[in-house]
């Protein structure tokens, strides 16, 4: 039987840390001081900030970045799995090695602490983990389980702490942005010619190649997207993204990462990218892939209540209908259309209000009961049915749109006496 240390090879990040930790435990049992000291040093070496840009095609320079995002499997944010494992296992190692030879240095503890506060302090919301950051592990109760494990690690380890951030942060190394206020949180996930958005590995995430094409998740209760994945019938209707409504969902696009293959191409480099302005809390995204182009800007509203979204330059020469999904979430009481005119539709889902500035005949709202199977999304899971009620809203731009545009806002219902507030 091979020992863990024989399998380390060229592993990096958490994979290397795990193998080293197994070797340390074996060394303790065997009284092997040489291996013990060597592999506690290997563990410590994985807790570091990697300044260099991660390769788009392999794990060169992967790891913790200066913005406190964590990348593995090429240039791809991995906050819900590998990054979370660094926090969780790093915390356990802190406790196990505390006061022993090979314990983590003050410098390593500071890095781990700051990863917890400046990274995960933005991603935990009301007992749930940011749905844009879960990654490929779209399992039942994934959001609450990741949040629980990270919370335990940060609150039960001396030197670490759990914080609740407010404001705006662009994780500029990994193409995602977070907005947080007292009543709401929003997260945006993007992919470009230099940042992979998501992956499909080991039969995980069989349907989600487009989950990072400008996705927007807006939360108040933290349960808006809890276990929603089996209820999504069309995986091109990801919240926030602009895509082809009826084109087959496939991982064969040469710009996507699937089954351990790092792919490049299909992007038009000078027409893709993103940036953020901390003064105005605006995030801008430029997309050009599959013959579809658009630009999108998310801006915190002037009153601090939610986001204004501007979508422009929507252009396609294909024969597929182009749509923008405004929302695809668990339905709350009262979900549906509040009011509608020729060029404005107001819809609500619980205490979240959406004001859509587009021709009313282009706005499609569905509230219905649905059922799905987790196995269809996570091929390694046995068949497990899940049912629920869905709230789905999208705007159609038609076939072959040319510089189409529209705007919408998403915000919290006001809390004032005399106004009807919907139950959360």
Descriptive report:
This protein has 424 residues and is α+β, with helices and mostly antiparallel strands. The protein has six helices and 22 strands. The strands form six sheets. An eight-stranded antiparallel β-sheet has the order 12-13-14-15-22-19-18-17, with no helix packed on it. The chain has a four-stranded antiparallel β-sheet with strand order 5-6-7-9, with no helix packed on it. Strands 10-16-21-20 form a four-stranded antiparallel β-sheet, with no helix packed on it. A hairpin with a 4-residue loop joins strand 17 and strand 18. It is globular, with a radius of gyration of 22 Å.
The gist of it:
The protein is an alpha+beta fold and 424 residues long. It has helices at residues 4-7, 13-30, 33-45, 82-97, 106-119, 142-155; strands spanning 63-64, 70-71, 124-125, 128-129, 167-171, 176-180, 185-189, 199-200, 215-219, 242-244, 257-258, 273-277, 282-289, 292-300, 307-316, 321-330, 336-340, 345-349, 352-357, 363-373, 385-399, 404-412. Strand 12 (273-277) and strand 13 form a beta hairpin.
List the helices and strands and how they pair.
Elements: H1 4-7, H2 13-30, H3 33-45, E1 63-64, E2 70-71, H4 82-97, H5 106-119, E3 124-125, E4 128-129, H6 142-155, E5 167-171, E6 176-180, E7 185-189, E8 199-200, E9 215-219, E10 242-244, E11 257-258, E12 273-277, E13 282-289, E14 292-300, E15 307-316, E16 321-330, E17 336-340, E18 345-349, E19 352-357, E20 363-373, E21 385-399, E22 404-412
Parallel strand pairs: 8-11
Antiparallel strand pairs: 1-2, 3-4, 5-6, 6-7, 7-9, 10-16, 12-13, 13-14, 14-15, 15-22, 16-21, 17-18, 18-19, 19-22, 20-21
Helix pairs in contact: 2-3, 2-4, 4-5, 4-6
